[in-house]
Design brief:
Shape: globular
Structural class: mainly alpha
Helix content: 55-70%
Bound molecules: zinc ion
Largest sheet: none
Distance between the termini: 8 Å
Number of domains: 1
Oligomer: single chain
Length: 117
């Protein structure tokens, strides 16, 4: 069971990753305007379905403060993989780089490590 401080930090780090993911999603051809629809064939075929579903699950309206610990933690884990993909693609050394994404990665990893106790 994660304590309240860990939960708040999960929600904090998710906020940054959500901002970045929203900027990256290309919704030009999305008939749902970015509202993920679990039963939709369009969503199942979409190349951005994982990011989109994750955004949907972590939306403010999803009420993160009342999600179970494991849902919060797996949302942060997804975010770490997601942002980690950008830093790898950009050849950043995320352990030492001072850019926003790498700094975020270290912080999010710290939150995850704290949540495993
Ligand atoms: Zn970096």
């Amino acid at each position: 069971m994660a304590d309240n401080q860990t939960r708040s930090r999960c929600i904090e780090v998710l906020e940054y990753a959500r901002g970045l993911a929203k900027d990256q999603l290309d919704l030009t051809d999305c008939p749902h305007h970015g509202y993920y629809a679990a039963g939709s064939g369009v969503c199942r075929e979409c190349s951005e379905q994982y990011e989109c579903e994750w955004l949907f699950r972590t939306d403010q309206s999803a009420d993160l403060h009342h999600k179970p610990d494991d849902a919060l933690i797996s949302a942060v884990e997804f975010a770490v993989h997601y942002i980690g993909g950008f830093t790898v693609a950009a050849n950043h050394t995320s352990s030492t780089c001072q850019c926003g994404n790498c700094t975020w990665l270290r912080e999010a990893q710290g939150v995850l490590d704290g949540a495993q106790d």
